[in-house]
Amino acid sequence: MISTIQIRSQHGVIVATLPPETDLNNIQDVRTQLIASLHASATALIIDLSNSTYLDSKGIRLLMELEQHLQTSQQPFRLVVPLESHLARLLDIAGVPIARDESVAAALQSILRTTTGPPKTSRSLP
Amino acid sequence: MIKPFSARELLARIRALLDKARFRRVARRALRDGERRFQEMIDALPAAVYLTDAEGRLTHFNQAAVEFSGRVPELGTDQWCVSWKLYYPDGTPMPHDRCPMAVALKEGRSVRGVEAIAERPDGKRIWFEPFPTPLRDSEGRVIGGINMLLDITDRKRASEAQGKLAAIVEFSDDAIIGKDLAGVITSWNRGAERLFGYTEQEAIGRPVTMLFPPERLEEEPRILELIRRGEPIEHYETVRRRKDGTLLDISLTVSPVRDERGPIVGISKIARDITARKRVEAALRESEERRRRDLERALQTEREITETIQRSLLPERLPQIEGIHLAARYIAASPEAAVGGDFYDVFNLPNDHIGLVIGDVAGHGVQAASVMGQVRTLVRAYGHEGHPPAIVIDRVNRLLGRGEMVTLLYLVLDTVSGHLTYANAGHPPPLVIAPDGTARYVYGVDPPLVGGSHQYKNFSTTVAPTSTVILYTDGLVESEKSIDRGLTRLAEVSTENAAAELEDLANAIVNTLEEAERRDDVALLAFRLQPIDPKLFRTVLPNVPHSLPTLRYSFRRWLEAGGVPEQDAFDIVVACCEAGTNVVEHAYDPDGGSFEIEARRDRDRVVIWIRDKGKWRARPENGGGHGLAIIHQLMDSVEVIQGPGGTTVRLERRLRLLARV
User: Fold this and answer.
1) Which pTM does this prediction carry?
2) CA dihedral sign of residues B63, B65, B70, B75
3) Chain A residue set in contact with B, beta carbons under 8 Å
4) How far is B404 from chain A (nearest CA, A)?
5) pLDDT digits (tens, 9 = 90+) for A65-95
6) Residues of A in Cβ contact (< 8 Å) with B630
């Protein structure tokens, strides 16, 4: 199984494309590469699942962890998943609370709209 | 031997009688009697004796003189000697009138202590010592002479040989040692002095064992025993010790010394120093041995490396894919031969497709094996990206190093439809055997990979269920005298065994190869499409992560073949794989073990049993918790049944979309 994830940076946003399938076989590699890509200067993260056909509970848990981490550091995080896909349905069933877009372009637009709008202010802690 | 003086005594008495006979007839008669008796006595002597008158003319000779001279002397004619020719001891001719008898008669004295050589008419030479004595009358006048010739040839020859031998022994480079039967040294030449360092005085009288290193002492009784039995020992290589303690490699020749009567009276030993030869031999042997060891080690290392690479590159076990039987064989040309670059691979692809690869890297050894590894990895990588076979092969070709040559066949099989897409870079054609035994080669081939770019083409065919496809490397068909004959034989064997189990078919094919014909490695990969029973799915998989994709593909294929709607199928596969993940992750025995998945389809319902021998655990704090949560979301019923032998998870799902239709 392919473990390599494609990572690129667009306008300071990390765009990571997951392999077609993510399960017990490659979850460690995927996790390591994703975490390594999240350097401090990254303004946001997009995980592209549009090429993915399978994501198991380990993958879903990784997405949840990243969501928690990025929420703390106030870095926007979005997923790219075709709306009608099996994967989208699976994310719904698993209750993954991450914002989704249909394409990387749409995700980028969503992020840039937020960050280039009003000057970035630190979110008040609860 | 007759003593000359006793003859003289006799003669004196005869002379006395002669004097008296002048006066008396009785005395004259007595003289005649005495003369006759005297001649009879001479004739009876074993030594050559003859008589002459005062001028040296022969008056009488005995039989021994005939034998000595090899001729019958003539009385009254032959003068001075009975011999035919005479020589001085130095070999120069001796005139008869100078012979010892001539000297004795002319000078009126007995001649003693001289030696001469007589030559007989047959050419034989005889060393002799003469004893010529003049005979006188009562007035003292010489009236004749008597001579006896003593044959001393044997003595002469012996002493001559002894002299020569002594010279040889003395000046020999070899150590020549005499010893008696008790092993005491009796002679010691200069060679022995040089070789062993002892002088003659030091050595003689001492036991020969002083030359033996302690660990060789038992050799001496064995040598003595052999010699006593009269068996000489020749070129026996052993070790002896010098006076200074250094050890010598020597070659020993030991022979018995007999006296002329035959018994062994001593032992002669010739020892030759072979230390230098030994050293050269040892050096040669060692260098050869070292070279051989180095070479062997290098070859062994290379073979091990290559085999390790190859083993690691060939699939450890073929993936289990529901509905597809797979069999593979790899036969090395011979244990001594370098490992070849033949390889095969099978891997799952998305959407119920599998990739099948067979290839052959030109050459042998580490280089070929590493190229094979690169090619295998590239085909897997490009294949997983979903490219059609022609594109995969073209990309591999572009990345191949210059100077390499690879034949490669890559097939993508749709396990549901039996549709086969392939591209062939110079590899022997796949053989398809229909259920009725009809064999056909699937042609369509492009040039081998040599690096660079080539427009490879995709070919396709459809394989019916229960059909068998055989992929192989050229070693399988080239062993025949012609490849065509090899291909014909392969087709024949495959047809004959078309109904056999796939493993048996593979064995039958491999067994057609004669041992001696295996000049090259042979790789064989065969697969057979099994018909799918839409009502029952059952598979057993090892407790390893890699079983999960296998389970996904085969299970999805079964669901699709049974017409289960895609969304239901996806959910069932996800639930089933989450259960499988839990088994693999919490495997009771991490080094082995397996789990079984059985599924039954009953109109609008699918029931799945996942059985393992471990204790099924669901820990809410980790992925297992997520997994179980997801399973519960996707399935209508989830039961975990703990039994003494393991855990069974029973999942049930109603086919929602089918029900809706």
Assistant:
1) 0.45
2) negative
3) 1-2, 20-21, 23-25, 53-54, 56-58, 60-61, 86, 89-90, 93-94
4) 27
5) 999 988 888 889 999 999 889 999 999 999 9
6) 57, 60, 90, 93-94
